[in-house]
Amino acid sequence: MTICPLPQVMLEPLVRAALLEDLGRAGDVTTDAIVTATETARVGLIAREAGVVAGLDLALMAFRLIEPRIEVTVERPDGSRLASGDVIATLAGPGRGLLTAERTALNFLCHLSGVATATASVVDAVRGTKASICCTRKTLPGLRAVQKYAVRVGGGSNHRFGLDDAVLIKDNHVAIAGGIRAAVERIRSRAGHMVKVELEVDTLAQLEEALTLDVDAVLLDNMAPPLLHEAVAMVGGRILTEASGRITPQTAPDVAASGVDLISIGWLTHSAKVMDIALDQHG
């Protein structure tokens, strides 16, 4: 899989903000007192458990912004599958810079690798089916672009990035509009020809009505696998089908077996467990 890195101009504000939060008003008082300006070190970013690497660019940027003289050798780039003990990258240079940037670098790397690893676990669970695994807008504030990047690194795909790039008509929209037809008609009277429209449905009756309207996809929300099978059969390939609702690596195979096109999972970004990666003496 070819992974397109995010532009540095997108990453730098995130890394700078994180470093400034950590440095506070006086800098790294611990490291500056213990490590002299001339002392150097050689360290490695080392996986302590199996997983998928993501966010290495942000981690390395943290080191380089603090100390441009740090030299980096990347051993396993984003997208690499790791075993415990694998070296992701080695870094050599002034010890102060390595220690001052350590926590910020690891915060990005461990979190985003956790997102990629969680995504890969579900992608692996549905391998051999037509279903694609995608994320949602349930992201941590300020980190949406990089979290969605990590989902792609893990083999998943992205749902909409915000409220402005696609239409998703949910139950509250329908309730306020006074019905599914009214909500869809209002959207179609305003949305441009490039805007995709997806409608959330909870029942087969709602789905039947949706299929008479001008929508591009249906979100089959919290339907059990037997009901999903019926729903997908009703759609018959006319529009995209998406399943959602507390789906895990254990339940994903049954959901995918229904024939849905997409499985969307919010916890990939809002609750993924971090991957255990350390900065240790190396070489």
TrEMBL record:
Pathway: Cofactor biosynthesis; NAD(+) biosynthesis; nicotinate D-ribonucleotide from quinolinate: step 1/1. Keywords: Glycosyltransferase, Pyridine nucleotide biosynthesis, Transferase. Residues 115-280 form the Quinolinate phosphoribosyl transferase C-terminal domain. Its EC number is 2.4.2.19. The keyword Ribonucleoprotein does not apply. The keyword DNA-binding does not apply. Gene3D superfamilies: Aldolase class I (3.20.20.70), Quinolinate phosphoribosyl transferase, N-terminal domain (3.90.1170.20). It comes from the Bacteria. Belongs to the NadC/ModD family. PANTHER family: NICOTINATE-NUCLEOTIDE PYROPHOSPHORYLASE [CARBOXYLATING]. NCBIfam families: nadC. Involved in the catabolism of quinolinic acid (QA). This is nicotinate-nucleotide diphosphorylase (carboxylating). It comes from Neoroseomonas terrae.
